[in-house]
Each structure stands twice: as C-alpha cells, then as structure tokens.
C-alpha cells in the first residue's frame, strides 16, 4: 500500500552545482543566455537573477521582494520567483522536472476551456486572467490552454484498492497541491498566513484541505486523515476502477463537446512549404505565434522586438514537424547555437544534460546540424527577416545500447524505479526478467508471463500500452526520440501483474432502454447492437421499471469495445446511456465512516448544480458524486449496494428527493443498507420538505459547499412517514387517456388497468390548489428542459384535460363534489374550493396551512406520527392569505387512513404534480416504505471551525487558530 500512497520520490537527476555560482552570473536578465543553474536538491529550477520593475512576491515565503536592483531570482522555465535568502530552502519542484517526480501518474479530469478568475497556472505560475484555461474537475489544478502540453499528471488517486492490501495496513498520505489556496488560509505548522493573492504559493492537501507554507509542509506528519470530512469520505483504498483504455473524463461520465486539444490539431492543416515561404512577420502568422508562446515569453516579446533579437521555431522531432507543432524561443541575433540549445530544452521543459542534445536547422534544403560555438544567425540559411525553424535532436552516444527506467507500479516492493540496460537485441521478456530480479522477485518462483511491461505516456491524459513479449523496446525508444523528444521524456515503463487488481468483473451500467421488457428482449436488443462476439458474462441486475441494467464483463478489452459501441448507440430514437462503474470493497471502509453518496440534479439549479458537482468532487472522493443526468439515482445506488451503512445527499428540489426515495424503494431490497438517511441541499424553488428539515428554502450559490457537508455530518436521523395514494376511477369512465396514465410505470405502479398508485411524501391536494398547479404545470411543459417532472409522459393527457376545462370552474362547491372518510368516519366538509392533505407542515414554498398550535381537538402534528392533517381552503383569496401567512386553512380532520370519493372529474396534485382525476375512489394509507431523513442540527455548539481549511478533532492543539472561530459559532 505504501507504494501507492506516496506521491513523490526525489531523484537526484540534476547535475551538481553550487548555488553560489549564481551570484556571479550577471548575464541573468536576458532570457536566452541565462546560466543553467542546476541544483542538487532536486527542485530543478533554472534560476537567474532578475530586477523586477513592479511589485513581485516570493513564491516560497509569499513576502514581497524589496530593493531596487537584483531583488531576486526567477526560474527561466517555470517563472518561480524567489528571494535570494529563500533560495536555500526552496522545495517546490520546477515544472521541468515535476513530471519525473510523480510516482503513480494519474490523469486529471479536464474541464472545457474557459476563463477562471483569480487563479494561477500550475505550469507557468502566471495568472490565468483572461486567457483561456482548463482546470481539473477533481483537484485544484489549473493550466493555461497554452500550457496544457506541460501539465503534470498527478491528480488525486481515487481508486487504489488491490487485493493485497488490508484495512489495517492502509496508510493515506496528504496529496499536496501548490497554490490557489482559499483566502485567509493559515499554515498549520507555523500558524502564519500561507496563501497569496499575488502568486502561486502555499500548499494544500487535496484530501483533507490542510494548508501550509511550501517550506513548512514537509515538517507536518505525512499521513492524511481526511480532515473534518472523514466520517463521510469514501477512501480511495475502498475503491477499484477497472484498467480500461478510456479517458478519465469519459469514466467520470462527463460528456466532452470539444477536446481541449482542438487548438493544436486545427493547426495541422498548413503544409511545410507554405510555412517556409510565408513571411515571418505576416499578421496572421504573428497571432498564431502569440498563441503558442508561453505567457512568460509573451511578456518579453514586445521588448524583444526593439532589440536585435530573433524568434525561432523549435520542433522536438519528426512527428511535431509533421503536425506543425512547434514552440518558439526568442534569442539575441548574435547568440551562440549553444544558447539556442539551452533555450530550446527549456521551452520543451526538458531538464536533461544539454550535452546529450544538438540543434539542427530545418529548412527547405533539409536538416543540417549547427555548430554550437558559432553565432546562430551566421549559420542559418533562412534569409534575414524570416523566421527560422530548428530541430532539437538527441545525440545517440551508442545506437545499440542504453538503459530504461522500469517502475514497479503496484507490485509489492519497497524500492523505486530501476535502471535496466537494454540493447537493440533485448526483448520485452528479457527486460521483465531483469526487472523482476532487480526488484527482488524470485524469477524461478514467478513466471515472467504473469507480468507485463507497460509503456505509460504521462501526457495530459496518461495513456498506456502493453508491450508484446517479443517487442524490442530499445528500437521503440530510439524511434520515439526521433519523433518527439518531449513525448519520449514523458514515457515510462511499468512492470505489472497481468491480472487487473480490480478483479475479473467489470460492470457497465446501461440506461435509456425501453421499460418493462423481458430479460430475453433486453438481451436481444443489446446483442443486436454490440454483436455476438462482444457478449457479456451476465446481467448483474435489471431495473425493468427504469429500462436500465448492469452488464458484467470479465475482459477489459471486451468491456471497452462494448462501452464505445453503446455510447454512440441509439435505440427507439433514444441515445443509450453507458457508464463504467467503480467497485466498492465494503470490508475496506474504516470504522465510524458512513460514506456519503451525493446526487446532484443539475436541472433543478441551473449552473449551480454543475458548480456543486465540481465542488463535491474536489471535497470528497469523486466516485461518491453522481450527476443525476446520467441515468438518475440508479448507478449510484448500485455502486453503494453492498455498503452496510451510508448516507445520501440529494441536491435538487423536493421532486429530486422523491425520485431518489422511489429508486431506493425499488433497489432497496437488493441493497444491504435498507434505508440510508437522506439529506437535502435544496435547489430551485419550492423545497417544502427541505424547509421542514431545516435545510433552507434554496441554495443561492453563496454558501460554502464544505459547510453543507459538515452540516450533513452533524445532522440527526428522523423518520418521514410516507403515504400510498391509490386512485381508482369508476369503471365506466375508462378511455384511452386513462390507459395512458396506467401505462406510465415511471411514477405509478399499476395492478388493474385503471388503478394508479402514487407514493406521497409531502402533501396531496384536491381542488383549487391542484388547479393552480396545473397552470404552472402548463407553463413548465412549454419549457420542459427547465423542469424535471415525474409526470412528463402524461403531457398529452394534461393538455387534453386543460382544453376540457376552459371556462369551467371545477372547484366551486368542492364540498359537494367529494365525500371524505377519515379512519372509517365520514367527515363533514365546510364550504370550500379545495382541500389539502398534509404530511409535512410546509406547503406551496413554505406556507403552513395547518397553522400554529392552538387549543382544539387535534394533536400537534409531525411528519412521523402516522397521521395526516386535512385542511380546507375557501378560495383563491384564502389561498393567497395562507401563502403570505395572514391566515391558516380550516382544520378539517386528522387521521391515518383516508377514503375520498370524487363524485366528478377533479384536479388533484400529489407532491406538487397536478393532473385531472376522473371520478372514483381515492384511498390514502400509510405506506410500508420507510424513509429516514437527515434533519439539520439546530445545535451549533458542535460547529467547529469556519476556516475553509482544516479541523483535527483528535488534536485540538493543532486546530488552525482563527480569531473568527468564536464569533462564527456565536453568530449562528
Ligand atoms: Zn522569500
Ligand atoms: Zn522552475
Ligand atoms: Zn500557464
Ligand atoms: Zn486533477
Ligand atoms: Zn491531507
Ligand atoms: Zn508555515
């Protein structure tokens, strides 16, 4: 386990050089001639002295640089700015070597390109400001689109379970990320401020939120306990994700409209000859040039224009030349070729010894090596004023022999990577044997065919490829170097067991199929789409009412193929849905942990929903967070089916809560946890249930998602009565329309053709309030994508009913149109136009028609006492008065079993969903279905720390000291 949790391993790959030599370097200000100052402490920066002309801050200690000249140093590759006095303690790795420090590369989950305010780029350390940038949806990593090629693939490891680890042996470590700390973050080690609004500075753990200075973070214990969210965190050691050839974005169920690479691939259109013949100063060319230069170079460009400088295009290999992917450097015209070489290495973030490289001019006359000692301009064939192109090349010292680094991956060995000598004759199998020996794994004992060598490209998307046993890797490496040096640098070799630690079973969730078919019919539909050769091992489960099922596969290749076929497949004009699901290992869940399953209905809250998904994925394990747009609550409930105890957070309206509860009713029988307590983050309007449970009228976007999660931890379990409403129309009334309702199995179960059954959580209304709901309903039907309606399929029916009702007052004298029996006794109704039957004491967005406690024959109602309250409303005016709190409804009855006879067709609503119900019987009785809800705790004394960062319950001495602590707990 240790091998997986530990993130970095320092390599002394830099040539040794005394830092003091820097002080003698006066050539510092020109970017291309700076001394390559390699450092032996492993941070890898190429520092040069610099005089800053505007206020600048030290990225190490966050203080300002003072003095008029030569105040500090800056790294020529990554723009790290540092005081001279701080130089000796720098620990932040340069982006030129950061990738090589990553032990287990994990691809980030990239957002669409966009603009992110007040954030800094983790590659070039500059502000993102108005440039297009991407961010990781799982961790706090930001990069300019221009810097995207140089991102470090060190995202959070979210699913690391393997059968070799046990709960007792698991140690989780902090996952440090530099910069973009929440405002006012304090260093846990020295208690001083460690965030900065001026530069990329400070460290933050991606799991527990702990913050510290870069210089202080190594003093803190390495073990991470997930901070204040650990009671609801699903640790990565409890999860495994099959090893499949799919992007993280795909695995997280994020649909990508455009690839962030589009800016790069679009440029491949121009031919080389066009490029060479074009004038280097043409306007079109110039704008493209700007795009591809790193922001650091962009800053200096205008200044360069005035001086005698030259802009050169650098290609790092044949493949880049073919695709016209180059980076530009700016150097003085009389600079020696050696300086070009160093600048070229830096622009590609290659931190190797320059002696292993050379530069060659790439012109229409072919490729010609340049003499390192002579000035570049004199050697170039490209005419003055035109932009020269050069190749950066690797010098093969021995074309037949070299060595490769092999990493142990998740093998149980304590050592890091091993250098293995390879010749042009070595096969993959030879390398596996040598590596096994070097890692101390007995070769006789273990058959090399049980292992495989994997080539991993630590690109922005981390891709891997298994080498065939008779491949000759040295030839592959040499070819790769010719094609792209950068890609070669980013390639690694891992020794891995052939079996996937995830195990043989891979589950694909398939949704959007027709509902209510037989297993055989589903089988036929899917086989027709994916083909017989790709048949799954078994159906793990079929949700007939939802048209969804889970397919199990034993081979990752087959599962990948099926995934790719199904994601583009359409059946019955519906785009099928396919999701790859992680496996939870319940025995690995720590004691006292009740992982939180988060559902977000993005349709309820507009863009707030999307922001919440990103926030929760960052705060928790991203595999705990499900977007209801992808198959509703079923995929999440399926993933958690074996977890003995967990909680749910439903972000959405009351309709979303009802949706989650009804899915729980359906899958509950198969799940180990029968009734997980459910909390609500109310989105949109209405939210009566959320109000009653103290979660508030609606999320406005201003509240901190972290504090919501803490409230969920502190919330108390409370029962919610649920009610079955059975509508049984009189037989003669039956017509096509009613058959249509009966067939709508989404929300109602049918036993006889004409009887429909609903589960009611909040309230049930007959008459005027349902009538008005219908008006709203019609409005929402006009903009259906804005609403998430359980009765969506009844659209046609509702519209027909509306037409029928024009100019008709159905609710006048309602008391004459219905008969009400409560617990077997006929109740006399007062003159009214509507009655409401309440389970919770909030209706129509927070109104209370029952009213406050008073002396009468009724008991004080609750939503768990097994009783319903019936109130009457005399008309529209009365209803408006109830809404504004001026009056209450007329108390009619209280009881646990209601029978209502509708003498005519009447508008009704269940939990705010209205329709016209034909005359007949309606029975409301207590449902056997249970729901446990979470009620937000009133008691704020337990409210601990409003610091956005951290809380250590078992060590109060370490608690981040914030003066606002007492104030905030008192204020609320
Ligand atoms: Zn400093
Ligand atoms: Zn650097
Ligand atoms: Zn950048
Ligand atoms: Zn990430
Ligand atoms: Zn941590
Ligand atoms: Zn500190």
Automatic annotation (TrEMBL):
<dbReference type="InterPro" id="IPR020454">
    <property type="entry name" value="DAG/PE-bd"/>
</dbReference>
<feature type="region of interest" description="Disordered">
    <location>
        <begin position="944"/>
        <end position="972"/>
    </location>
</feature>
<keyword id="KW-0808">Transferase</keyword>
<dbReference type="InterPro" id="IPR000159">
    <property type="entry name" value="RA_dom"/>
</dbReference>
<keyword id="KW-0862">Zinc</keyword>
<dbReference type="Pfam" id="PF00781">
    <property type="entry name" value="DAGK_cat"/>
</dbReference>
<keyword id="KW-0547">Nucleotide-binding</keyword>
<dbReference type="GO" id="GO:0004143">
    <property type="term" value="F:ATP-dependent diacylglycerol kinase activity"/>
</dbReference>
<feature type="domain" description="DAGKc">
    <location>
        <begin position="591"/>
        <end position="729"/>
    </location>
</feature>
<keyword id="KW-0472">Membrane</keyword>
<feature type="domain" description="Phorbol-ester/DAG-type">
    <location>
        <begin position="173"/>
        <end position="224"/>
    </location>
</feature>
<dbReference type="InterPro" id="IPR017438">
    <property type="entry name" value="ATP-NAD_kinase_N"/>
</dbReference>
<dbReference type="GO" id="GO:0008270">
    <property type="term" value="F:zinc ion binding"/>
</dbReference>
<feature type="domain" description="Ras-associating">
    <location>
        <begin position="400"/>
        <end position="500"/>
    </location>
</feature>
<dbReference type="InterPro" id="IPR016064">
    <property type="entry name" value="NAD/diacylglycerol_kinase_sf"/>
</dbReference>
<keyword id="KW-0067">ATP-binding</keyword>
<dbReference type="InterPro" id="IPR029071">
    <property type="entry name" value="Ubiquitin-like_domsf"/>
</dbReference>
<dbReference type="Pfam" id="PF00609">
    <property type="entry name" value="DAGK_acc"/>
</dbReference>
<keyword id="KW-0863">Zinc-finger</keyword>
<dbReference type="Pfam" id="PF00788">
    <property type="entry name" value="RA"/>
</dbReference>
<feature type="region of interest" description="Disordered">
    <location>
        <begin position="256"/>
        <end position="306"/>
    </location>
</feature>
<dbReference type="GO" id="GO:0003676">
    <property type="term" value="F:nucleic acid binding"/>
</dbReference>
<keyword id="KW-0418">Kinase</keyword>
<feature type="domain" description="Ras-associating">
    <location>
        <begin position="308"/>
        <end position="397"/>
    </location>
</feature>
<dbReference type="GO" id="GO:0016020">
    <property type="term" value="C:membrane"/>
</dbReference>
<dbReference type="InterPro" id="IPR002219">
    <property type="entry name" value="PKC_DAG/PE"/>
</dbReference>
<feature type="domain" description="Phorbol-ester/DAG-type">
    <location>
        <begin position="107"/>
        <end position="155"/>
    </location>
</feature>
<dbReference type="Pfam" id="PF24099">
    <property type="entry name" value="RBD_DGKtheta"/>
</dbReference>
<keyword id="KW-0479">Metal-binding</keyword>
<feature type="compositionally biased region" description="Basic and acidic residues">
    <location>
        <begin position="282"/>
        <end position="306"/>
    </location>
</feature>
<feature type="compositionally biased region" description="Polar residues">
    <location>
        <begin position="961"/>
        <end position="972"/>
    </location>
</feature>
<dbReference type="InterPro" id="IPR001206">
    <property type="entry name" value="Diacylglycerol_kinase_cat_dom"/>
</dbReference>
<protein>
    <recommendedName>
        <fullName>Diacylglycerol kinase</fullName>
        <ecNumber>2.7.1.107</ecNumber>
    </recommendedName>
</protein>
<dbReference type="InterPro" id="IPR000756">
    <property type="entry name" value="Diacylglycerol_kin_accessory"/>
</dbReference>
<keyword id="KW-0677">Repeat</keyword>
<dbReference type="InterPro" id="IPR056392">
    <property type="entry name" value="DGKtheta_RBD"/>
</dbReference>
<dbReference type="GO" id="GO:0007200">
    <property type="term" value="P:phospholipase C-activating G protein-coupled receptor signaling pathway"/>
</dbReference>
<dbReference type="Pfam" id="PF00130">
    <property type="entry name" value="C1_1"/>
</dbReference>
<dbReference type="GO" id="GO:0005524">
    <property type="term" value="F:ATP binding"/>
</dbReference>
<comment type="similarity">
    <text>Belongs to the eukaryotic diacylglycerol kinase family.</text>
</comment>
<dbReference type="InterPro" id="IPR035979">
    <property type="entry name" value="RBD_domain_sf"/>
</dbReference>
<dbReference type="InterPro" id="IPR046349">
    <property type="entry name" value="C1-like_sf"/>
</dbReference>
């Amino acid at each position: 386990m240790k091998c997986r949790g530990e993130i970095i391993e320092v390599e002394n790959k830099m040539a040794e050089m005394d830092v003091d030599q820097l002080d003698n370097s006066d050539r510092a200000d020109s970017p291309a001639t700076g001394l390559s100052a390699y450092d032996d402490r492993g941070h890898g920066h190429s520092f040069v002295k610099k005089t800053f002309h505007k206020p600048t801050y030290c990225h190490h200690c966050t203080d300002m640089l003072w003095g008029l000249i030569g105040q500090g140093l800056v790294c020529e590759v990554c723009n790290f700015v540092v005081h001279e006095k701080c130089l000796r303690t720098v620990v932040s790795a340069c982006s030129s070597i950061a990738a090589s420090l990553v032990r287990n590369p994990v691809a980030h989950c990239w957002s669409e390109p966009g603009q992110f305010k007040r954030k800094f780029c983790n590659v070039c350390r500059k502000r993102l400001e108005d440039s297009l940038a991407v961010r990781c949806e799982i961790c706090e990593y930001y990069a300019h689109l221009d810097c995207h090629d140089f991102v470090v693939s060190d995202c959070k490891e979210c699913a690391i379970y393997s059968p070799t680890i046990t709960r007792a042996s698991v140690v989780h470590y902090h996952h440090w990320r530099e910069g973009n700390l929440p405002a006012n973050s304090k260093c846990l080690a020295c208690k001083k401020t460690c965030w900065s609004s001026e530069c990329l500075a400070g460290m933050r753990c991606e799991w527990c939120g702990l913050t510290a200075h870069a210089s202080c973070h190594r003093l803190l214990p390495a073990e991470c306990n997930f901070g204040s969210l650990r009671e609801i965190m699903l640790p990565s050691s409890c999860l495994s994700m099959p090893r499949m050839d799919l992007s993280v974005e795909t695995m997280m169920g994020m649909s990508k409209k455009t690839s962030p690479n589009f800016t790069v691939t679009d440029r491949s259109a121009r031919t080389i000859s066009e490029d060479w013949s074009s004038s280097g100063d043409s306007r079109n060319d110039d704008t493209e040039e700007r795009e591809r230069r790193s922001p650091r170079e962009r800053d200096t460009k205008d200044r360069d224009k005035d001086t005698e400088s030259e802009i050169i295009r650098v290609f790092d290999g044949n493949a880049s030349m073919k695709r016209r992917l180059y980076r530009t450097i700016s150097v003085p015209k009389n600079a020696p070729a050696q300086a070009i070489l160093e600048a070229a290495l830096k622009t590609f973030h290659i931190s190797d010894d320059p002696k292993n490289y050379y530069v060659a001019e790439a012109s229409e006359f072919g490729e010609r090596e340049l003499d390192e000692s002579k000035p570049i301009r004199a050697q170039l064939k490209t005419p003055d004023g035109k932009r020269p192109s050069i190749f950066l090349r690797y010098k093969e010292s021995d074309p037949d022999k070299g060595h490769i680094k092999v990493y142990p991956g998740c093998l149980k060995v304590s050592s890091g990577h091993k250098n293995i000598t390879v010749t042009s004759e070595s096969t993959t199998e030879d390398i596996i044997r040598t590596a096994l020996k070097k890692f101390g794994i007995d070769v006789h004992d273990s058959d090399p065919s049980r292992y495989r060598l994997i080539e991993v490209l630590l690109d922005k998307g981390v891709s891997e490829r298994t080498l065939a046993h008779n491949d000759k890797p040295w030839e592959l490496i040499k070819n790769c170097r010719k094609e792209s040096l950068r890609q070669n640098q980013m390639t690694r070799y891992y020794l891995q067991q052939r079996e996937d630690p995830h195990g043989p079973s891979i589950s694909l969730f398939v949704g959007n199929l027709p509902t209510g078919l037989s297993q055989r019919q589903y089988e036929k539909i899917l086989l027709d789409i994916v083909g017989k050769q790709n048949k799954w091992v078994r159906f793990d489960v079929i949700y007939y009412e939802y048209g969804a099922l889970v397919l199990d596969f034993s081979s990752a290749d087959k599962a990948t193929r099926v995934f790719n076929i199904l994601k583009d497949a359409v059946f019955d004009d519906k785009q099928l849905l396919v999701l790859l699901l992680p496996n939870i290992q319940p025995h690995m869940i720590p004691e006292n942990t009740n992982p939180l399953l988060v559902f977000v209905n993005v349709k309820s809250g507009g863009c707030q929903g999307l922001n919440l998904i990103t926030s929760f994925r960052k705060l928790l394990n991203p595999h705990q967070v499900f977007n209801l747009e992808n198959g509703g609550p079923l995929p999440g409930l399926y993933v958690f089916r074996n977890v003995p105890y967990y909680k749910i957070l439903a972000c959405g309206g009351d309709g979303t809560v009802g949706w989650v509860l009804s899915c729980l009713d359906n899958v509950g029988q198969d799940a180990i946890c029968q009734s997980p307590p459910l909390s609500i983050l109310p989105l949109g309007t209405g939210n009566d249930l959320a109000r009653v449970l103290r979660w508030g009228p609606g999320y406005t976007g201003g509240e901190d998602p972290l504090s919501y999660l803490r409230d969920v931890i502190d919330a108390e379990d409370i029962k919610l009565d649920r009610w079955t409403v059975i509508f049984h129309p009189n037989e003669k009334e039956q017509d096509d329309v009613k058959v249509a309702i009966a067939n709508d199995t989404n929300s109602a179960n049918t036993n006889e053709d004409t009887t429909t059954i609903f589960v009611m959580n909040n309230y049930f209304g007959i008459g005027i309030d349902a009538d008005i709901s219908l008006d709203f309903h019609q409005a929402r039907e006009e903009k259906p994508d804005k609403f998430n309606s359980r009765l969506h399929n009844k659209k046609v029916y509702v519209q027909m009913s509306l037409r029928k009702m024009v100019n008709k007052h159905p609710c006048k004298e309602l008391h004459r149109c219905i008969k009400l029996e409560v617990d077997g006794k006929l109740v006399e109704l007062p003159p009214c136009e509507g009655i409401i039957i309440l389970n919770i004491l909030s209706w129509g967005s927070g109104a209370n028609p029952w009213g406050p406690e008073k002396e009468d024959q009724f008991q004080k109602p609750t939503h768990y006492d097994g009783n319903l309250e019936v109130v009457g409303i005399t008309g529209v005016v009365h209803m408006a008065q109830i809404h504004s709190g001026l009056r209450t409804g007329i108390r009619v009855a209280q009881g646990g079993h209601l029978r209502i006879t509708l003498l005519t067709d009447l508008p009704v609503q269940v939990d705010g969903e209205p329709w016209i119900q034909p005359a007949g019987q309606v029975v409301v009785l207590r449902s056997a279905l249970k729901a446990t809800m979470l009620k937000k705790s009133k008691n704020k004394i337990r409210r601990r720390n409003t610091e956005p960062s951290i809380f250590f319950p078992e060590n109060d001495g370490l608690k981040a000291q914030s003066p606002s602590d007492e104030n905030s707990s008192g204020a609320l």
